[in-house]
Known about the structure:
It is built from 7 helices and 9 strands. The chain is of the alpha+beta class. The strands form 2 sheets. Strands 4, 5, 6, 7, 8 and 9 form a 6-stranded mixed sheet that branches. It has a 3-stranded antiparallel sheet with strand order 1-3-2. A hairpin with a 4-residue loop joins strand 7 (193-200) and strand 8 (205-210). The chain is elongated, with a radius of gyration of 22 Å. The N and C termini lie far apart (51 Å).
Amino acid sequence: MANTKNSSAREIILDRLLKHRCGYSVYELCDMVNRSLQLEGYSPVTPNTIRNDLTTIHEQYKRVLHVEKRGYAKYYRYKDTNSTIFTNVLTHGEIQHLRSALLCIRACDQIRGSLMYQDLTNRLSTILNIDSASDPIVIYDKIPPMNEIKRFKILYEHIQSKTPATITVCSKEEDKEKVITIHPYYLYQKENEWSLLCHDSTNDNPAEIPLKCIQRLVSAEEIEFIPNRDFPLKDFYAKHFSRG
């Protein structure tokens, strides 16, 4: 790459952007690269630098680029969206752990207000293609007990993918089962008991459901996910946590 000052950082960012099926024009790529570079403390680059970078990716790294002309602009992406100029030394599971860690780090940031967490989130987001503005999934002091790990993991995956689910709930108080459709938002620990914070669309109200009461869960991918409006995170922290 002609401009070698921040070439490694640009390679990481461009490699991620070129995986997107929609494709981007040189000017769009330049804007997105510059936003990420500024988070790293680098100076912005010009569209000509991005053009040179694309040439290098094609000629030096031997990656096939799909170029589509729309109007007067050309849009670029990898022909094979699984293509990359890097050899990934992390397994899929390890990347998922990092994604989870980032969300937990962001939870800590809300409580302690340390800029270090936000800086780290932004840096890793650039590499792992994670939305640094995402809400945390888990709010906890201790990991869940072994008998709840399976339910915890399944619910975590539904929260992360924003997938509704139909669950069967059984409580000792009511002594009967009920089936409801939920839109999961957070896993929450209170006084050593784990609960799911969600929207109960069957009864159209917010719900806090203890994990131990969830008997069965079936994904409801055909149902459109309802974004969280029941549990504003800032108000939630103010109500349930102190800085002590």
